[in-house]
Amino acid sequence: MKTTILKTVFPLFAFVFAIAGAFAFKPAPNLATSNFLGAKKIGLHECQITSVDCTDVNTGVICKDGTATLYKMISGTSCPNQLWRP
């Protein structure tokens, strides 16, 4: 009698546990994409932060503020990496 109950109930519990586990967790966020506030070059070695959101992942569309191309600010005076529209 014990084995009959285990044979019918155990697969049911395993199935319910698998379904609950599948819906209990969300996929990990994609950490490869990061958004930055773009910076435009003012002079040779100076940059100014803008309020335009950009990403460092190449989407094919250059991030601009009006006609100025935006770059990623690394330090207070350095912005060598071009940014893209998210």
Automatic annotation (TrEMBL):
Q: Which UniProt keywords apply?
A: Signal
The signal peptide, as residue positions, is 1-20
The family database entries (InterPro entries) matched by this protein are listed as: DUF6520
Q: Does the keyword Signal apply?
A: yes
Superkingdom: Bacteria
Q: What is this protein called?
A: DUF6520 family protein
